[in-house]
Amino acid sequence: QVQLVESGGGSVQAGGGMILSCKMLGDTERIGRMGWFRQAPGKEREGVAVIRKRDGTTEYGDSWKGRSKISRDIAMRTVTLEMNNLEPEDTAVYYCAAGPGLVLLPINRDQYDYWGQGTQVTVSS
User: Fold this and answer.
1) For residues 110 and 36, is the Cβ–Cβ distance under 8 A?
2) Which of 4, 17, 25, 99 has most Cβ atoms within 10 angstroms of its Cβ?
3) What is the DSSP letter of 85?
């Protein structure tokens, strides 16, 4: 079993940035990829960024290219999401996710078996 613990959510002004962190606990041997997803009220959960654990290869959702960066630490236990140029429409609950497999694209939430409880990100005008 794998447990994911998120931190770093909060409020930020439009145009600002935020860094979210996700720590993976338990047996992560079978984890091959991690990611960050978000879900706003009334909307489906969508991918922000994903990363392959083994080699650090990254992919991003279309609206996040150029304004986000996902990374992992050298111990492959922590996944970090750096977001910039945030806008009110980015307000959502952001979830860390992890799962087996190596393929990153297309970003597919169904491929991630483990999920954190989510952290609220609120962007004000």
Assistant:
1) no
2) 4
3) S
